[in-house]
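To assess whether ligand presence alters the predicted conformation, the chain was also submitted together with pyridoxal-5'-phosphate. Input:
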Amino acid sequence: MTIDFSKLAVEGVQKLNPYQPGKPIDELAREFGLNPADIIKLASNENPLGPSDKALAAIEKELKDLTRYPDGNGFELKKVLSEKLGVTTKQITLGNGSSDILEFIVKTFVDTGDEVVVSQHAFAIYGLVTQMQGGKTIQVPAKNWGHDLPAMVEAITEKTKVIFVTNPNNPTGTWNTKAQLDAFLQAVPDRVLVLLDEAYFEYVDKPDYPNGIDYLAQYPNLVVTRTFSKAYGLASLRVGYGVSSEQLADLMNRVRPPFNVDSLALAAAVACVKDENYVRQSKALNDQGMAQLEAAFDQLNVNWIPSVGNFICFEVPNRAMEVYQGLLSKGVIVRPVANYEMPNFLRVSIGTEQENQRFLLELKDLLAE
Ligand SMILES: *Cc1c(COP(=O)(O)O)cnc(C)c1O
């Protein structure tokens, strides 16, 4: 007799569809018989600059100590972050990517039957971790592709434990203003946790874009997450963090695996926090690339959603999967967003000028077919 272990898995896991990441370069090379060097990946909002020299130097220095466990408290990284952000080290929770923090909050607060409020078109991980925990995801319709914060407040019930707000949101690139966030935080009951995901914070320079850290003193129910995966160029190392009240950080620390961030990631992240220059360069390159893509989409009569992130969604009515596959066959990887209820769109990450150019040429060819 063979046992069907899927029947023994907890209910949330039985029904779970795993997160679909962007296609890795080597996988596409294998599938299409392409040379990896000829493939460009604009599918996971990674930094096209490559890692900073300072991060690489810090990693090299750390290599000889690989036999040791990492500092489970991340003392040095918390110290430089606390100085930069003007918070105490006890307010900081380090994560194996900021996705870790999203999971810690849900694990800490969401029990079977509890509700978690998210926006339509929001980052998929929120729903996945909620389901894993036996919670129920309440999805609130978006407004002009963005979070409708007043409607999200309306969706709160007795059972609501957590609300996720992504600012700016991935994959839409939409964002909420200070005035909108002020009103939202005022309206959310104290007992409901607000997780403000600022994975793309460093790319935004709108004057009325709010900095989540500024709200922490007033809102003990707030957790702000940031990451080294995007503007800091360390996606593969998996390091991010949450900033919250000390009490929430203490609770999250109880569910955090003891060595969740490795020593190379810690060392590289410390070097990156001190290297403002790299982030400035990343942002400048992103601004240029975004302008390049917007102008080209307009020329091609392709509709796009204004984005303040390092990616942009563009519309290919009724042909999104066909164009996605066509781009793949040419060695250009972008991201379908049908699973975000956007079946007519594709998301492209901003690359170097040359990468953007190559993507645009292939897209132009495919659209002319
Ligand atoms: C990329 C991304 C993250 C960060 O993921 P890491 O785990 O830090 O690599 C978090 N939230 C959103 C919305 C993202 O797009």
